[in-house]
Design brief:
Layout (H helix, E strand, L loop, with lengths): L4 E7 L6 H15 L3 E7 L6 H11 L3 E6 L5 H11 L4 E4 L11 H8 L5 E5 L7 H19 L11 E4 H4 L23 E5 L15 H17 L2 H24 L3 H30 L4 E5 L5
Parallel strand pairs: 1-2, 1-4, 2-3, 5-7
Antiparallel strand pairs: 3-8, 4-6, 5-6
Helix pairs in contact: 5-7, 7-9, 8-9
Length: about 300
C-alpha cells in the first residue's frame, strides 16, 4: 500500500538518541491509522548509527534507510529524503531527540486546513539564551523580513509539507535554515503550530561558529535566489567588475576611505555572487550522493 505520510529524518552520529526516537515515532505513527513510511537519512555517521539503522530495518517493513556516500550536511540529507519519499504529505524532524514526535499530529491537522507548509514553533526553548536563542530570534526576524514568509522559527526541524512542494528539490548546504521560504511559500500558504523543545540527551550539537558566517552569507543571498538566481548571478558578475575598477581608481587617487568603502562592497558582492553560483551548481549536479538505499518495497 502506498504511504500517505512520509517522515524524513536526517542523522549524523546519533547512536545515543536513535533507538528512543524511533520507538517514540513508531508509537505516534501507529496511532494515526494512516499508511506511512519512515526515511532515515544517514549522513556519513562515524559511530554506530548505521548499524542501529540496519537492525531496525530488518524488523520494520515501513522503515527505509538512505545511506549517503559521505557527510554532506542536513540540507543534502533532507534533499535525499525528499527525492525518495512516496507519501502525499512529508513530515520532517531532527534526529537528536529534541523534537517530540507527539507534535507531528498537530502539524498534520494544521496542514489539512489547506496550507502548503506548516512549521513548528519552539516558543519555549531549552538552549542557552545568548548563544542560541537570541541569535535565532534575530535571524528569524530577518528571514521573515527578507522573504515575506512570516514564521517565528525557521530553524525548527518539525515541519509538514504537501509532497509536491518538496519532492525532487535540491537544497544547497546552509539553505535548509530558510525552509519553507526557500520553496517560495508565503502569506496564507504557510502556517505554524507551537511545539515542544526538549534537551538533547546524548551526543553533541553539530553547530559551531561557522554557522554564524553561513547564516549571514545565506541572508545576503536568499532574496536573489527567490527572484531568479541565474539572472542575479550575471548581474553580480558585472557589479563585481565595476566595483573592482572603482576600487583600483581609489588606490590610484590614494583615497583610503574610498578604497575601504568600495573594498567592503566588493567583498559582499563577491560573496553573494559565489553563493548564487554554488546554488545553481547544486541544482545541476545535485546536493548529495547515495551509497545505499534500503527498502523492503517491491518495484
Amino acid at each position: 500500500m502506498k504511504p500517505f505520510i512520509s517522515v524524513v529524518i536526517p542523522l549524523h552520529n546519533e547512536e545515543g538518541n536513535l533507538p528512543s526516537l524511533y520507538e517514540e515515532l513508531k508509537e505516534v505513527l501507529e496511532k494515526l491509522n494512516t499508511p506511512y513510511e519512515i526515511l532515515f537519512v544517514n549522513d556519513g555517521s562515524t559511530d554506530r548509527t548505521g548499524e542501529i539503522l540496519m537492525e531496525m530495518f530488518q524488523k520494520d517493513k515501513y522503515l527505509k534507510v538512505i545511506e549517503l556516500d559521505g557527510n554532506f550536511g542536513e540540507a543534502a540529507a533532507l534533499s535525499a529524503g525528499f527525492s525518495f519519499c512516496k507519501g502525499e504529505v512529508v513530515l520532517t524532524m531532527d534526529g537528536d531527540g529534541q523534537n517530540d514526535p507527539k507534535d507531528l499530529p498537530l502539524l498534520l491537522e494544521e496542514l489539512k486546513k489547506g496550507y502548503k507548509a506548516v512549521s513548528g514553533w519552539r516558543k519555549e526553548r531549552k538552549e542557552d539564551f545568548l548563544k542560541r536563542v537570541l541569535p535565532s530570534k534575530i535571524a528569524n526576524w530577518m528571514i521573515a523580513l527578507i522573504t515575506g514568509c512570516k514564521i517565528h522559527d525557521t530553524g525548527c526541524g518539525l515541519k509538514a509539507y504537501k509532497a509536491e512542494l518538496v519532492r525532487g528539490i535540491q537544497i544547497p548546504h546552509g539553505f535548509h535554515r530558510f525552509l519553507p521560504a526557500l520553496f517560495g511559500v508565503k502569506g496564507k500558504e504557510v502556517s505554524e503550530v507551537m511545539v515542544k523543545d526538549r534537551s538533547r540527551k546524548a551526543g553533541k550539537s553539530h553547530y559551531g561558529l561557522l554557522r554564524t558566517f553561513e547564516v549571514i552569507r545565506e541572508l545576503l543571498t536568499i532574496r536573489f535566489v527567490l527572484s531568479g538566481p541565474k539572472k542575479w548571478k550575471n548581474r553580480f558578475l558585472k557589479i563585481n567588475l565595476i566595483l573592482s575598477i572603482l576600487t583600483g581608481l581609489g588606490v590610484v587617487l590614494k583615497s583610503l576611505p574610498l578604497v575601504i568603502g568600495l573594498g567592503v562592497l566588493l567583498i559582499v558582492s563577491h560573496v553573494i555572487y559565489k553563493n548564487l553560483e554554488r546554488f545553481l551548481q547544486v541544482q545541476q549536479k545535485g546536493a548529495y550522493r547515495v551509497k545505499y538505499f534500503w527498502t523492503k518495497e517491491e518495484d
